[in-house]
Design a protein that fits this description.
The structure is a single chain. Helix content is about 60%, strand content about 0%. By secondary structure, the protein is mainly alpha-helical. It is built from 5 helices and no strands. The longest helix has 21 residues, at about 25-45.
């Protein structure tokens, strides 16, 4: 999935030398994805719960699954914002 988002094949990642660097666009995408995952794992305390959240349709995303929005930086930013709002209790009802 990550290779697809970066516009490369998984084989490209596998055969890349340890000293070689990705180009600017791929590096930015990898950093953005990493940032999103760090936030998600902090919010849910474990990978499994975060992945489950990524796979469920969310009303706040018009019924879309977050995983389907990570193809571009706008979608990743939306997901990060959702995670931050979720973690701060924005979606909790006030009595």
């Amino acid at each position: 999935t990550v290779a697809s988002i970066c516009g490369i094949t998984s084989r490209t990642v596998q055969i890349k030398d340890n000293d070689a660097h990705f180009d600017h666009k791929i590096s930015e995408t990898l950093i953005d994805l990493t940032d999103m995952f760090i936030i998600g794992i902090k919010v849910f305390s474990e990978n499994k719960k975060f992945i489950q959240w990524m796979l469920q349709p969310l009303n706040t995303l018009n019924g879309k699954e977050p995983i389907n929005l990570i193809q571009n930086s706008v979608g990743r930013t939306l997901i990060k914002e959702e995670l931050i709002m979720f973690s701060t209790g924005v979606y909790l009802k006030n009595d």
